[in-house]
Amino acid sequence: MSDIQQIIVPVDFHQHTDDLADFAVGVANKLGAKTTFLHVVEQFAQVVAYSDVDSTSFLQADEELFGRAQKKMTEFITKIKASCQFCDGVVLRGNAADSIVEYARDQKIDMIIMGTHGAQGIEKILLGSVAERVLKRAACPVLIFNPYKGDSGYSLNAPINAAVQPL
Q1: Does residue 20 contact residue 115 with C-beta atoms inside 8 Å?
Q2: What is the pLDDT of residues 140-152, one digit of tens each?
Q3: Which end of the chain is more exposed for a tag (fewer CB within 10 A), N or C?
Q4: CB 40 within 8 Å of CB 96
Q5: Is residue 165 part of a domain?
Q6: Chain center to CA of 30
């Protein structure tokens, strides 16, 4: 088994992002791995490109969303830099699952740590699960963090090789 030197952590800046970041940084620090937090801005302007609607305002909205995401990422990395010396952030455009898998492949990432929203029933059927799609398609190990377990997520007190075992 190869060493885990590079980890990506997809984040959506929603409710449990800080819990996921704390967990991922803990794992990365135990492994001595570089961590890249990744946010994907979905492009809705592409959807209207094939319609009769003037897409100029949609393109402007996409640019504004991308700019806001970059600003949020910069603020996020600044906030966690004290606990994660080797962290950086990347903002991409595209489909979330596709972009995560492609980035992991292109950057030769050793592990993906990502959260799940715990969608069930009709919500999962209609929307699908980004985590599930990444898990099925990624060429590297994917560690899924469930923020709904316990009061504040998980805690790794044991050495990482004792806590994580291959299937």
Answers
A1: yes
A2: 999 998 877 655 4
A3: C
A4: yes
A5: no
A6: 19
- Count how many domains the chain has: 1
Give the separation between CA 93 and CA 110, rounded to whole angstroms: 22
Distance CA 13, CA 18 (A): 8
The candidate with the shortest Cα–Cα distance to 143, out of 165, 159, 123, 125, is: 165
Which tens digit of pLDDT belongs to each residue from 14-44?
888 999 999 999 999 999 999 999 999 987 6
Token code pair at residue 84: 């994660």
The full 3-state SS of 49-115, as one line of letters, equals CCCCCCCHHHHHHHHHHHHHHHHHHHHHHHHHCCCCCCEEEEEEECCHHHHHHHHHHHCCCCEEEEE
Regarding pTM above 0.85, the answer is no
Q: Which domain holds residue 144?
A: 11-158
Adjacent-strand bridge partners of 37: 9, 89
d(CA 129, CA 126): 9
